[in-house]
Write a structure and sequence with these properties.
The chain is of the alpha+beta class and 295 residues long. Helix content is 44%, strand content 15%.
């Protein structure tokens, strides 16, 4: 390349060589995810954002998908916003009423005398995907209020339409829905602590990051903070997460539906999670030119 051409490219704002290399790595990540999409006997949606570099990667980002338990992130955010506004005391004790829905969790196994703080109830919702706990929180914060908050954030395709285990509502088509891009944006909003004090935002993310079983977490090494909420229904597997990788945090939402085999959706989430971590880990530990110097 001549000096004149180099000067012209610089004046036109052409990316420097290190940026070109990172773009090439990003495109290889895209190719890995698109390969998962081609193999999956179902429909895949993905939205990823590099929270340091700002790059995004999307597959069907604006398509609506069933959210299953991933919608519980919206309930958690609303709970903490109301706590910030003085409308909820997270330390206040509540006695979850009977009867309680089943379908997983802890409350369904406990008696009618149990008392928990609102934060405890949120921990059950996030760590054990407790459906009864989720319904208690929906009653506390209000379904319409959750949806109003989502709309105020510009997340107009994301809707909490029913409580957990309400099959009659689901049969009517009142599914809890969102898109990969909007759930990823919700995760970013929570990570940024929008509308929350620093201490309350930190606590909310700690609740979101409580240990849980998830195919998304399987490829990730221990010690990384992962604030995630997986979801599962028949023919549906999904997850929305913030991976707080030191030096290179990222937000991601992975959704699958129309699955022929549920296990295929879980495998797709594991494979994409592995591809993301392998890419972001290299970016976190590399120089601008791609060299890694290990301890």
């Amino acid at each position: 390349m001549t000096a004149a051409v180099s000067l012209l490219l610089l004046c036109l704002g052409a990316p420097a060589a290190p940026a070109e290399k990172q773009t090439a790595l990003w495109e290889k990540l895209r190719a890995r995810i698109e390969a998962v999409d081609r193999r999956l006997d179902g429909v895949l949606g993905v939205s990823v954002k590099d929270l340091k570099g700002g790059m995004t990667l999307d597959v069907r980002p604006a398509e609506p998908f069933p959210q299953a338990s991933s919608i519980k992130l919206a309930v958690l955010y609303e709970l903490y916003r109301q706590a910030e506004e003085g409308r909820v005391d997270l330390g206040e004790l509540t006695r979850p009423p009977l009867p309680r829905v089943r379908g997983g969790g802890v409350l369904q196994e406990l008696g009618d005398q149990v008392s928990l703080t609102w934060r405890d109830v949120a921990v059950l919702m996030m760590g054990w995907s407790d459906n009864a706990a989720t319904n208690v929180l929906i009653d506390r914060v209000g379904m319409d209020t959750v949806n109003g908050r989502l709309a105020a954030l510009g997340l107009r395709a994301t809707h909490l339409r029913r409580k957990m285990m309400d099959l009659d509502a689901a049969r009517r088509g009142d599914e809890n829905v969102s898109t990969p891009a909007e759930m990823r944006q919700l995760a970013e909003t929570m990570y940024a602590g929008a509308g929350l004090s620093r201490e309350r935002a930190r606590d909310m993310m700690a609740v979101a990051a409580v240990p849980k079983d998830s195919p998304f977490r399987v490829p990730l090494p221990e010690g990384i903070v992962v604030a995630d909420k997986p979801g599962s229904l028949e023919a549906v597997r999904c997850v929305t997460a913030i991976v707080d990788l030191p030096g290179r945090p990222y937000a991601v939402s992975i959704m699958t539906t129309y699955l022929r085999h549920d296990a295929d959706g879980e495998a797709a989430i594991r494979e994409i999670s592995a591809a993301l971590y392998e890419t972001f880990d290299r970016l976190a530990r590399s120089s601008d030119l791609g060299r890694i110097i290990s301890e």
